[in-house]
Specification:
This protein has 204 residues and is an all-alpha fold. It contains ten helices and no strands. The longest helix has 23 residues.
C-alpha cells in the first residue's frame, strides 16, 4: 500500500484544534499519507478492541485492523461526513471483514486456558470467574457469525441496538430479531456447559 505524502496535512499541524475526521478523510481521499496516519492512530484502538472481541485472538484481530485500514486508504472517498460518524463506518467495515474471515474458515478463537489457581485467599473465586469467562467466550465463539456480531456489538461494545444495527447494515427490527435468536442460542450453549445466566453474572 504505497503512501505518497502530499503535504496536504501540514495545515492541520499548524491549527490549534485537531482536524476533524471529515477533514482527515477528505485529505486521505486525495492521497495524503500524513492524514491517513492520523486516522490510523486515532481509530486503531477501537477497531482492534472490536476485532479482538469478535475473533478472540490477537493475531487475527491485528490482521483485521490491517485490512480495515487498507480499505480506508482505498475507499476514503466512499465515506461522507453527513452520512454518520467515521467510527460507525469503521464498525461496519470491521463487522463485514470479521464475518468474511470466519466464513472463509480461518481460525477465529483461541482462548488461552485460565491461569493455575493461586492458593491465596480468594483464589477459588478468581478461578471460578476465569472458568465462567472461558465458558462465555467459547459459547460466543460457537455462534453463527451474524449472531456473534450481534452479541459482541451489544454486550461487549455496549452499543445501543440502533447503532449495532447500523454496524451490521440492518434495519432495527431485523437486528432486534437477530439479537433475540442470538441470546437464545447463547443460553443453550452455556447451559450445555453446565452454566446458568445467573452464574455468568460473576464473570468479568
Amino acid at each position: 500500500m504505497a503512501l505518497a505524502s502530499s503535504g496536504l496535512a501540514a495545515p492541520f499541524a499548524a491549527e490549534e484544534r485537531p482536524p476533524s475526521d471529515g477533514e482527515l478523510m477528505a485529505a486521505v481521499a486525495r492521497g495524503d499519507a500524513l492524514a491517513f496516519r492520523e486516522v490510523v492512530q486515532r481509530h486503531t484502538p477501537a477497531v482492534y478492541r472490536y476485532a479482538y472481541r469478535f475473533t478472540g485472538h490477537p493475531s487475527e484481530a491485528e490482521d483485521v485492523v490491517q485490512d480495515v485500514f487498507v480499505k480506508v486508504w482505498a475507499r476514503a472517498g466512499d465515506w461522507r461526513e453527513g452520512q454518520g460518524a467515521l467510527g460507525a463506518w469503521l464498525r461496519r467495515v470491521t463487522t463485514n471483514l470479521c464475518i468474511d474471515r470466519k466464513r472463509r474458515g480461518r481460525r477465529i478463537v483461541d482462548v488461552p486456558p485460565p491461569e493455575q489457581a493461586d492458593p491465596a485467599p480468594g483464589a477459588d473465586e478468581a478461578a471460578n470467574a476465569n472458568r465462567l469467562a472461558k465458558v462465555a467466550c467459547d459459547a460466543v465463539a460457537r455462534l453463527p457469525e451474524r449472531q456473534r456480531a450481534a452479541i459482541v456489538l451489544t454486550y461487549f461494545e455496549d452499543l445501543p441496538n440502533a447503532d449495532a444495527a447500523d454496524a451490521m447494515q440492518m434495519n432495527l427490527k431485523a437486528f432486534e430479531s437477530l439479537l433475540v435468536r442470538a441470546r437464545a442460542a447463547l443460553a443453550k450453549l452455556v447451559a450445555a456447559a453446565g452454566v446458568t445466566a445467573a452464574d455468568l453474572g460473576s464473570a468479568p
